[in-house]
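subagent[fold] <- orchestrator: predict structure for attached chain, return tokens only, no commentary.
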Amino acid sequence: MSKSPGDADPAAPDSVLDRRRLLNLLLGGSFLAWAGVVAYPVLRYLRPPAESGGTGSAQLSDEEKKKLARESFVIVRLGADRVIVFRDSRHRLKALQAKCTHEGCTVQYQSGEDLIWCACHNGKFTAEGRVISGPPPRPLPAYQVTGDLTGPVTISRQGA
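subagent[fold] -> orchestrator:
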């Protein structure tokens, strides 16, 4: 018996369902991939940075010591912290947190005035980290420095 063009093929509903399932699967998979692409950076941003190093101390490299001698200060990493190491007016090595306590800007050492200065809102700190002027609400935390520029210089957290 010959089929006319209007006759239904008994296998056709299965092939339509298979195509529909395939399209639904592809559409669902592409939506999940899009959601992952959007969610991953947001979740990564919201997670606090991991503490790197973990030792609680760091040594200045020869290049950092040269920069310290040349520019009177250097900013180094101690785990996830930024630390400013400088020579005060009495030529003693000191180290303070390099992140301003007001809004987290990176501070600089002004050797002519022997103070730490935050350029964001003109906050000023003494060489010991106490607030002199500006909007910073708290002093800069201090770090312990051992050694001098002729030998090894180690920076560590206070009490570590």
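orchestrator: received. Logging for downstream: Residues 44 and 83 are 25 Å apart (CA to CA). The chain has two domains: 11-47, 57-157.
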